[in-house]
Design goal:
5-stranded mixed β-sheet, Rossmann fold, 4 domains, Methyltransferase, Cobalt-precorrin-4 Transmethylase, Domain 2, 503 residues, Cobalt-precorrin-4 Transmethylase, domain 1, alpha/beta, elongated, uroporphyrinogen-III synthase activity, single chain, 4pyrrol_Mease
Length: 503
Amino acid sequence: MSVGKVFLVGAGPGDPKLITLKGIEAIKKADVVIYDRLAHPSLLKYAKKSAKKIYVGKLPNKHTLKQDEINQLLVDKALEGSIVTRLKGGDPSVFGRVGEEAQILVKQQIPFEIIPGITSAIAVPIYAGIPITHRDFTSSLAIVTGHEDPSKNESNINWEKISTATGTIVFLMGVSNINLIREKLINNGRDPNTPVAVIQWGTTVEQRTVVGTLNNIVQEVEEAKITSPATIVIGDVVKLREQLQWFEKKPLFGKRVLVTRARSQASELSAMIEELGGEPIEFPVIKIVPPSDSTKYDLAINQLDTFDWVIFTSVNGVNSFFDKLKEKKTDIRKMSNARIAAIGPKTAKVLEEKGLIVDVLPQEFRAEGLLDSLEDQLKAGQRVLLPRADIARKVLSEKLKDKGLEVIEVDAYETKIDAENKNEIIDMFKKGKIQIITFTSSSTVKNFVEALKDESLEELLQGVKLASIGPITSKTAEKLGLQIDITAAEYTIPGLVDAIRRV
């Protein structure tokens, strides 16, 4: 068996978007991903489905695996022929013990690459509004470990020199020793009034920052109950925080938002949440699949030239329609006699991207609004094609039939429940780590309730805000015993996000 390869990758300081492109490539290549506590778990989504994921996280007083065991794990998996990606928080060369891991690989003649990451020593302070250098304050910087190897007989830190040698000192992994750090600096000449910031879980929605001086920072940290992981910044640059803090001022900062849309559609909503400083947690309770019986759909496509109207009620309906045209080798020009209606702007946009101009787009983005917009244009006897979900509401087709139109309603796609990461989500609810849930359709509500049917939703969702894209979805939620706190005024994803940010 040929020997594999090991990638030693810096995962960045916490914000999953701060990993490098090369780091993502290494995750995608991996047969085995070995990750620690400070590597954001969402980075695992880049891994192959077949990849084995092994957690080796370390707490200050509790290690899942000791370093020697981690080293051996890298060797064993590589010798099995696997491509191994070792994900380490921050930059692996900054107190990340990457040198030790690389030395072991050299001894075993295992090929490896070291991929740098953004170190928390730089990223965490700037997310707190503190540039670690500034020409008006300092042009020098020291990065120091706050947690040396406990087996060493004496410290490698020359406190006498480091205390006054640079304008800014950043301590990593030092919050448990902050009193000792404070005493060492003051006793070796650092001004007791020097500004200090301590930032916990920097670059994430859980970021908390306390500011003081060497004189009082221990008391500030104790009162705020700041614990590991935390970054300590010492120097006059801390004064810039009041003016430059930006991350903590974002509208959704501090909030994790559950996104229940289908995996294929979640990215738009997730991106908007991230832009506003929140952290989207994807829990796709819906999976979009082709219809189990497409006989009626196939027949409708064969008769495409006989329709006066084709009405699309969702982006999924548009995508499935064009997939069906391709499957049946049907030219879109066959529907040249038909007028096109769309229920919302996103659906209309996707149609326009396909080269079709929408004739009717209602002001109210639901079936009732579309009916109002079509009122003066419908004539008895007209044929209407309505490609939609298998579980869609019947109000649109029934009202059209009442007006004397011939409605061909086909299942363009089916929605199935999909709750692969259910246990992880339940655990997050129990730990109070989710603040908002978003529902973008009645299906997402029904499937969410079904997925968690073995749990007490009243207890699980205590303190959690529920946000709905519109009144139909809200009504479904209320029928199922969920209390909706936020309903979008405009029944679109941007409208939903806007409603959330106003709370």
